[in-house]
Write a structure and sequence with these properties.
Largest sheet: 2 strands, antiparallel
Helix content: 40-55%
Distance between the termini: 47 Å
Structural class: mainly alpha
Number of helices: 4
Number of strands: 2
Radius of gyration: 30 Å
Shape: flat
Strand content: 5-15%
Length: 119
């Protein structure tokens, strides 16, 4: 069937009552289950898991500490250099008297500058 602008590709839509059983929903369901705690009561699995993660972090587990910090403080921003491949590309000014340079030489100068920018 060809694409028609403004018309849904699934006009019937999702059936009423159909649940989306994505990983988030599954984890929420499991995390909401209760398990016995050390004091004779119960605790939800998600809280027991985070308590264990904190204990591991405090015991020196670097991965656990990173996970706790990322969840508590948010992941650290990462900067990505997409223009210079990490090289120092300070602007360079070159004064050229075009009257003393042949068109071939001028073309070669532009080629060298362009290649320096790309590498």
């Amino acid at each position: 069937m060809p694409f028609i602008k403004g018309q849904s590709g699934n006009p019937a839509g999702k059936p009423v009552g159909c649940k989306n059983h994505g990983i988030r929903e599954i984890l929420e369901t499991i995390g909401a289950e209760s398990i016995p705690d050390l004091r004779g009561g119960t605790v939800k699995k998600k809280y027991a898991m985070w308590r264990k993660m904190y204990e591991l972090a405090l015991a020196g587990d670097v991965k656990a500490a990173q996970l706790v910090a990322d969840r508590q403080e948010g992941k650290a921003a990462q900067s990505i250099d997409m223009t210079t491949n990490g090289k120092d590309m300070a602007p360079t000014v070159v004064n050229v008297d075009e009257s003393k340079i042949s068109p071939e030489q001028l073309e070669k100068i532009f080629e060298v500058i362009q290649n320096a920018r790309l590498s």
